[in-house]
Amino acid sequence: MKKRVTLTFPKRSVQMPVTYRLAKDFNVAANIIRAQVAPNQIGKLVVELSGDIDQLEAAIEWMRSQDIGVSSSSREIVIDEDLCVHCGLCTGVCPSEALTLDSESFKLTFTRSRCIVCEQCIPTCPVQAISTNL
What we know:
Strand content: 25-35%
Oligomer: single chain
Distance between the termini: 24 Å
């Protein structure tokens, strides 16, 4: 099972080896989608956790016991097809290449499974056709 969550670390827990503990103690893989972690600051990670459902729940319970905030992350990028002019500006800032221009039709193609929801495309869109669902 896979579950995308946002982890919020208190200042004192930023240096804790959480992904190591998830793998070693719970057999849960953590694919880091987005990270904002710095010493003496509240840290945030968006991760996709993979593993057995019982192990995932145990890992989430453990993180909460360590004062790590765990919230479901279901935000996704949404493209308004009626507004999009297929200019391709968003493709230049997309680090995961989820946004591409079709080489034959020159139409924007969005591959949702590649998207890491970094939101860099949102301010780049000149017609405001890109947003998040939340």
